[in-house]
Amino acid sequence: MAKDCVPELLARATEELEAEFRELPPSGEPLSLAGMEWVLEAVAHRLRDNYPYFHPLYAGQMLKPPHPLARAAYALAMKINPNNHALDGGRASSAMEVEAVKEIAGMFGWNEFLGHLTSSGTIANLEALWMAGQMAPGRRIVGSEQAHYTHQRISGVLKLEFASIEVDERGRMSLEALEDELRKGDVGTVVATLGTTAMGAVDALDEILKLKERYGFRVHVDAAYGGYFGLIAEALEEPARRAYAVIGQADSIVIDPHKHGLQPYGCGCVLFRDPAVGQLYKHDSPATYFTSKELHLGQISLECSRAGAAAVALWATQKLLPLVPGGALAQGLAKGRRAAVELDRRVRGDARFDGLAAGGPELDIAVWALRAATPEEASERAQKVFDACALRGLHLALVQLPRSLFRIGFGPRDSMEKGSGDMTCLRSVLMKPEHEAWMGEIWERLSAACGEVVGT
């Protein structure tokens, strides 16, 4: 692991922070270090029981290391431990949250909006669907079969009916199937996913918005994973570019800075295009909102206590890496996407693997199957290759996907059932900029593992 200079920077910044409060009289007892050293050593040893999420050879799930500045700013804020539920608990961090969220909304072309950070993308989507239920009571919510499973779960919590819409050959919501549901006249909200977490599919938001003009419904965009890719829209395929071009026409958007925004967990964000929806959050707390007549973040949020340190880390990171096309953060996204495209290219050129039938990655997720005589054998081989890669220090992920998404065939006896059922496949989220430079090493280890399992 490379030398980490962040502790030195953090120590100097901590001294500066302490100097800001030097007028306060001393309080408390001197800090005792007795026992702390061995406990921290024990923590370090316990943390070894993890995959190396920070390293380019971890190419599995959506686990992107926070930027060193984000880690330092978060730790610095923990010296005060602010709570962004109310200005009384986090004056500076609340102001920093407002500023940081405004910059995120600016990515989507929004100047007037209502939004705030949340503790996760799940909570952000909960708030968006709760608002959907308030705005269209008694009406159904629909999303694609590849939409995140939390939408159906959240709808159940909110006592709202949810329906899954089948997907096309790219894993995008089928527009024909969506319109079939819309004709029933009881759909209040359509969840469009810009970047499904299984395969990175981008729903045709531009076409969904055209259907909105005909049928009248709210559009919620779940861009928790894929939201930042609007910064490199020119590097995406045309259908995805069209979707990102109109994201600002959605009624609500969710994005997770703790994914591509280089933040520690948990830092989600929910945005509403119409600021007037804030009236539906309205409540009072006689013991909380008393030091300022300004809007408290807790008054536009379903959550109460939230880590102000998350807002401080986000604010600091966005000052260093502005959310602009061509900037350093955007360049990092482009590198990850190029890595996924390159991995997909190599997969398609190898007779042992099978790529998606309709084309390669839309964002930075690559998925592929193992060729075999039966779907069961293909699934078994995927598991074995996954395990063999891990023994070589390369960590991928597994995913269950419909067999219909792949070119692979399993002979005449399977033809009657072709397209039905799921199959275990390999999946790689190449979200670290370093993945592009490490592609040769990743492929060498993957190929060797596959050779051990199925032969060369």
CATH superfamily of the largest domain: Type I PLP-dependent aspartate aminotransferase-like (Major domain)
Distance between the termini: 33 Å
Oligomeric composition of the shown chains: single chain
What proportion of the residues is helical, as a percent range?
25-40%
Main beta sheet: 7 strands, mixed
**Helical/strand content category:** alpha/beta
- How many β strands by DSSP? 11
CATH class of the largest domain: Alpha Beta
Radius of gyration: 24 Å
How many structural domains can be distinguished in the coordinates? 2
Spatial ordering of strands, largest sheet: 1-7-6-5-4-2-3
Label the CATH architecture of the largest domain: 3-Layer(aba) Sandwich
Topology:
Elements: H1 6-20, H2 36-47, H3 68-77, H4 91-107, E1 114-118, H5 121-135, E2 140-144, H6 150-157, E3 162-165, H7 175-182, E4 187-193, H8 205-215, E5 218-222, H9 238-245, E6 252-255, E7 268-272, H10 308-320, H11 328-348, E8 353-355, E9 365-370, H12 375-391, E10 397-402, E11 422-429, H13 434-437, H14 439-454
Parallel strand pairs: 2-3, 2-4, 4-5, 5-6
Antiparallel strand pairs: 1-7, 6-7, 8-9, 9-11, 10-11
Helix pairs in contact: 1-3, 3-10, 4-10, 5-6, 12-14
